[in-house]
């Protein structure tokens, strides 16, 4: 397979979603940039180590609460041993570059705040809607444009997508538990994918959506079980204009 060529980029970034649960992440720099990195890392379950001469009030509170571990105020290459990711987030470009070089020599993934192209990974602009995550990158060329694209996507992918995906995930597990053959599973979900569920959810056409789903899955999942799955997906968004389903009996069995 040929390597992708690009006339305006020296670095090609491989799109990748990773789990940081219980992963050790070192952040060097306790200012606003470091705080922003750490807020995101904690949200995704990472174990955070911090090196900084000064810390924001929020970072101090996180350290005092035991949510992050402050290693001290001086960076040393030895701190990289055993670390999964390192974030060079200081205002000192020379220090950030030294961290990136050290990380490269030890084959540790490094994100560099001041010169992203000198690190080994960049953090994309991210939009989340329930289980849906869309990451946008311009390859480091223009974070402002990436942000603009993300804002456009926010208008296109509303809560109905979160409801639909949550339901499809629950339904997939339920169908797989029935012990059907692989080709039967594939047929069910191909038929489900053809349904205009997003439009039905947007327009509160609950009965029409539910009846169509039951017509496809009713041979394996009963009406009550399907109703429970539907409401489980819908209820987290019940405060919106999309109320949970109160299902009527099927019109045609």
TrEMBL record:
One of its GO terms (biological process) is siroheme biosynthetic process. Pathway: Porphyrin-containing compound metabolism; siroheme biosynthesis; sirohydrochlorin from precorrin-2: step 1/1. Pfam families: NAD_binding_7, Sirohm_synth_M. It is an enzyme of class 1 (oxidoreductase). Gene3D superfamilies: NAD(P)-binding Rossmann-like Domain, SirC, precorrin-2 dehydrogenase, C-terminal helical domain-like. GO terms for molecular function: ferrochelatase activity; precorrin-2 dehydrogenase activity. Keywords: NAD, Oxidoreductase, Porphyrin biosynthesis. It catalyses: precorrin-2 + NAD(+) = sirohydrochlorin + NADH + 2 H(+). The keyword Oxidoreductase applies. InterPro entries: Met8-like, NAD(P)-bd_dom_sf, SirC_C, Sirohaem_synthase_central, Sirohaem_synthase_N. The keyword Oxidoreductase applies. SUPFAM superfamilies: NAD(P)-binding Rossmann-fold domains, Siroheme synthase middle domains-like. Its EC number is 1.3.1.76. Residues 129-156 form the Siroheme synthase central domain. This is precorrin-2 dehydrogenase.
């Amino acid at each position: 397979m040929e390597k992708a060529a690009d006339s305006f980029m020296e670095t090609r970034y491989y799109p990748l979603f990773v789990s940081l649960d219980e992963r050790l992440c070192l952040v060097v720099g306790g200012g606003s940039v470091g705080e922003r990195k750490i807020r995101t890392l904690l949200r995704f379950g990472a174990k955070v180590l911090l090196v900084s001469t000064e810390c924001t009030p929020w970072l101090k509170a996180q350290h005092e609460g035991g949510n992050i571990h402050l290693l001290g105020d001086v960076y040393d290459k030895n701190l990289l041993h055993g670390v999964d990711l390192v974030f060079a987030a200081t205002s000192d470009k020379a220090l950030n570059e030294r961290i990136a070089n050290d990380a490269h020599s030890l084959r540790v993934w490094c994100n560099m705040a001041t010169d992203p192209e000198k690190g080994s990974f960049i953090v994309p602009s991210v939009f989340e809607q329930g289980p849906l995550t869309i990451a946008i990158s311009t390859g480091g060329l223009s974070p402002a444009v990436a942000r603009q694209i993300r804002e456009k996507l926010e208008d296109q992918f509303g809560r109905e997508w979160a409801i639909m995906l949550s339901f499809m995930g629950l339904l997939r597990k339920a169908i797989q538990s029935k012990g059907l053959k692989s080709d039967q599973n594939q047929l069910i979900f191909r038929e489900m994918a053809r349904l205009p569920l997003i439009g039905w959810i947007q327009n509160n056409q609950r009965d029409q959506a539910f009846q169509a789903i039951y017509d496809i899955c009713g041979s394996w999942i009963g009406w009550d079980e399907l109703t429970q799955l539907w409401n489980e997906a819908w209820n987290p968004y019940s405060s919106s204009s999309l109320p949970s389903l109160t299902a009527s009996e099927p019109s045609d069995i």
